[in-house]
Design a protein that fits this description.
alpha+beta; Trna Endonuclease, Chain: A, domain 1; 5-stranded mixed beta sheet; 5 strands; about 30% helix; globular
């Protein structure tokens, strides 16, 4: 055993890093790693009037592409389904302002992409 963290541990650390970054930007984090039968959302928060669903992606370097590129249509659809369940279970109505953002961590850089995709 090399003592290196596994992918899940690294992912959890990057999600915590993203949450701390977002808090410094004024986002109120409501949930981390929200799970239901439809899937999982990394972070859910409030940014002003918006209920925001955040996908956090990390890449060590550009060899396997950039982090933001990893949020493909299939992943977007899953996030939208999970967001529907979250809103239903938590009592948010259809008039709630929503946004789907990506926090891309490439190496040491963090890029917060607001409105990274629209409801699908």
């Amino acid at each position: 055993m090399t003592g290196e963290p596994n992918k899940r541990q690294t992912g959890a650390r990057k999600e915590e890093l993203a949450a701390e970054y977002l808090k410094r930007q004024g986002v109120r984090i409501l949930e981390m790693n929200y799970r239901c039968r439809q899937g999982e959302i990394d972070l859910i928060g409030r940014d002003g009037e918006f209920l925001v669903f955040f996908e956090v992606k990390w890449r060590r370097d550009g060899r396997s592409g950039y982090a933001a590129e990893a949020v493909d249509k299939r992943k977007q659809k899953r996030i939208c389904r999970v967001s529907d369940m979250y809103r239903m279970f938590k009592g948010f109505d259809d008039d709630t302002a929503l946004r789907y953002d990506v926090v891309a961590i490439d190496g040491e850089g963090i890029d917060w992409i607001k409105n990274a995709f629209f409801y699908c």
